[in-house]
């Protein structure tokens, strides 16, 4: 019985991880697409691509909070190594998410009046945020999978 519960939890955690990584991959592909419009000149196409990227980025960010961390919290995670890493990176993920939401709020609306030079700078900053976020999430994912392999 206990083995069955443990196996079910492992399958559930792996499913959450796969969903998070899929969302991450989609967001990175959309980031690459937005960056392909350099030098930026605001038009309807760029605005649409930018809006899609913003939505994807927010959806991806939410998966860490609402899927991964809810899973750890509501399943009463007992593995101290996982909890320690998750607790240590969570404040940074919250800060990272807020910066992503700020970008979303700024660029997921009528961007026709925005300075394209500032957009390039902001997109470069968001690229760094995404890289930082991936590193943080990978720490938690590695802990989950390392324990899972034991």
Would you give an account of this structure?
It is a single chain. With 150 residues, the chain is an all-alpha fold. It has one domain (2-149): Up-down Bundle (Four Helix Bundle (Hemerythrin (Met), subunit A)), CATH 1.20.120. Helices cover 85% and strands 0% of the residues. The protein has 4 helices and no strands. It has helices at 2-35, 44-74, 80-107, 116-149. The longest helix has 34 residues, at 2-35. The model has no long low-confidence stretch (mean pLDDT 86).
Notable features of this structure?
150 residues, mainly alpha, Four Helix Bundle (Hemerythrin (Met), subunit A)
Mean pLDDT over the residues: 86
- CATH first level: which class? Mainly Alpha
For the largest beta-sheet, the strand count, sense and barrel status come to:
none
Overall 3D geometry?
A: elongated
Which architecture would the CATH scheme give at its second level?
Up-down Bundle
What is the H level of CATH, i.e. the homologous superfamily? Regulator of RNA polymerase sigma(70) subunit, domain 4
Termini separation: 19 Å
Question: Structural class, please?
Answer: mainly alpha
Task: Give the DSSP E fraction (strand runs of 2 or more residues).
Answer: under 5%
Please count the beta strands (DSSP E, at least 2 residues each). Answer: 0
Number of helical stretches of at least 4 residues:
4
* Count of individual domains: 1
Poorly predicted runs are: none
Helix amount: over 70%
């Amino acid at each position: 019985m206990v083995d069955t519960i443990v196996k079910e939890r492992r399958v559930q955690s792996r499913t959450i991880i796969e969903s998070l990584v899929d969302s991450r991959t989609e967001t990175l592909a959309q980031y690459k697409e937005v960056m392909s419009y350099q030098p930026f000149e605001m038009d309807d196409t760029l605005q649409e691509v930018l809006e899609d990227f913003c939505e994807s980025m927010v959806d991806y960010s939410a998966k860490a909070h609402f899927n991964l961390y809810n899973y750890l919290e509501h399943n009463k995670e007992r593995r101290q190594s996982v909890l320690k890493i998750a607790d240590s990176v969570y404040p940074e993920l919250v800060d990272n998410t807020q910066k992503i939401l700020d970008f979303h709020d700024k660029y997921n609306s009528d961007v026709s009046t925005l300075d394209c030079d500032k957009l390039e700078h902001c997109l470069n900053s968001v690229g760094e945020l995404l890289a930082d976020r991936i590193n943080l999430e990978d720490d938690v994912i590695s802990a989950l999978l390392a324990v899972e392999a034991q």
